[in-house]
């Protein structure tokens, strides 16, 4: 096996000087991001029916209750493939949803995080438990798609504001716009080989084994994050009778 190419080796003084040069661009990028966020806070908003129905662990629930008493709500719209086993579920949504774990910092700022899944609640909630996720999880019934998705598609992220009994959508994004949910990408961007994806502008000889059609989020035919659950003996049969823990021995 041939080792990948590596950067040139220089003295520490030369190395620090190169980083200092790059830091100027990094700071400009950060300031531009701040300016974009400021513009985002000044966007207009549009009203959404607060009674729009979702399905959670306790049955049907109106959208306004998903706020859990807070004034802001951030929603990850998780794609779902009805009737498919865990290995065939959306690898991209699994990648992004699974990296939002500690919610207390959002709660501190009066923000609730929730996942709105496209599939039937019982089946998709079993997937949530198989993955070991503890965030609030809801299914969007077909009759609520137009009110919430409105011609867009699952895979997007959306932000909402509650003003008393009224609810407003303030922002939404999709595609690479959802990358802030994935700190893994930010970490990879700071490594010498980057994300190792074919679209990246890397020097010749850098490893780039991953295409960007879902393969970058899969390993041996299933979403990468599932392997640790299988090794731990968790069951990924989405059609079996759910157990309390979501774990019932070896993966079929």
Q: Distance between the terminal alpha carbons, to the nearest Å?
A: 34 Å
Tally of DSSP β-strands = 10
Helix content: 25-40%
Shape: globular
Biggest sheet strand order reads: 1-8-7-4-5-6
Alpha plus pi helix count? 8
Percent of residues in beta strands: 15-25%
Largest sheet: 6 strands, mixed
Radius of gyration from the alpha-carbon trace, in angstroms:
21 Å
Round the mean pLDDT to the nearest integer and report it. 92
Give me the strand/helix succession: HEEEHEHHEHEHEEHEEH
* Main structural class: alpha+beta
**Poorly predicted parts:** 241-252
Description:
The chain has 252 residues and is of the alpha+beta class. It has 8 helices and 10 strands. Strands 1-8-7-4-5-6 form a 6-stranded mixed beta sheet. A two-stranded antiparallel ribbon has the order 2-3. A two-stranded antiparallel sheet has the order 9-10. The longest helix is centred in the N-terminal third of the chain and has 30 residues. The radius of gyration is 21 Å and the shape is globular. The chain starts with 11 loop residues before the first helix and ends in a 21-residue tail after the last helix.
Topology:
Layout: H1 12-41, E1 46-48, E2 53-56, E3 59-62, H2 63-66, E4 72-78, H3 91-97, H4 104-108, E5 111-117, H5 121-131, E6 137-139, H6 145-148, E7 157-163, E8 166-173, H7 183-189, E9 218-219, E10 222-223, H8 226-231
Parallel strand pairs: 4-5, 5-6
Antiparallel strand pairs: 1-8, 2-3, 4-7, 7-8, 9-10
């Amino acid at each position: 096996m041939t080792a990948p190419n590596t950067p040139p080796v220089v003295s520490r003084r030369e190395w620090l000087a190169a980083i200092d040069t790059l830091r100027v661009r990094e700071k400009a990028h950060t300031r531009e991001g701040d300016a974009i966020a400021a513009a985002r806070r000044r966007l207009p908003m549009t009203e959404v029916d607060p009674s729009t129905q979702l399905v959670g662990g306790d049955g049907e629930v109106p959208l306004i209750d998903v706020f859990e008493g807070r004034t802001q709500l951030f929603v990850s719209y998780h794609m779902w493939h009805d009737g498919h086993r865990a290995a065939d579920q959306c690898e991209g949504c699994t990648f992004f949803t699974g990296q939002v774990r500690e919610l207390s910092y959002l709660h501190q700022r009066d923000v609730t995080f929730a996942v709105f899944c496209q599939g039937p609640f019982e089946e998709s909630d079993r997937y949530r438990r198989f993955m070991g996720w503890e965030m609030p999880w809801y299914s969007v019934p077909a009759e609520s798609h137009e009110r919430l998705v409105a011609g867009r598609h699952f895979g997007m992220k959306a932000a909402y504001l509650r003003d008393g009994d009224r609810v407003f959508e303030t922002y939404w994004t999709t595609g690479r716009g959802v990358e802030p949910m994935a700190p893994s990408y930010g970490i990879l961007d700071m490594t010498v080989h980057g994300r190792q994806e074919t679209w990246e502008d890397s020097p010749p000889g850098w490893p780039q084994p991953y295409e960007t059609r879902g393969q970058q989020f899969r390993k041996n035919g299933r979403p990468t994050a599932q392997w640790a659950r299988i090794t731990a003996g968790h069951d990924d049969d989405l059609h079996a009778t759910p157990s309390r823990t979501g774990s019932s021995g070896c993966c079929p």
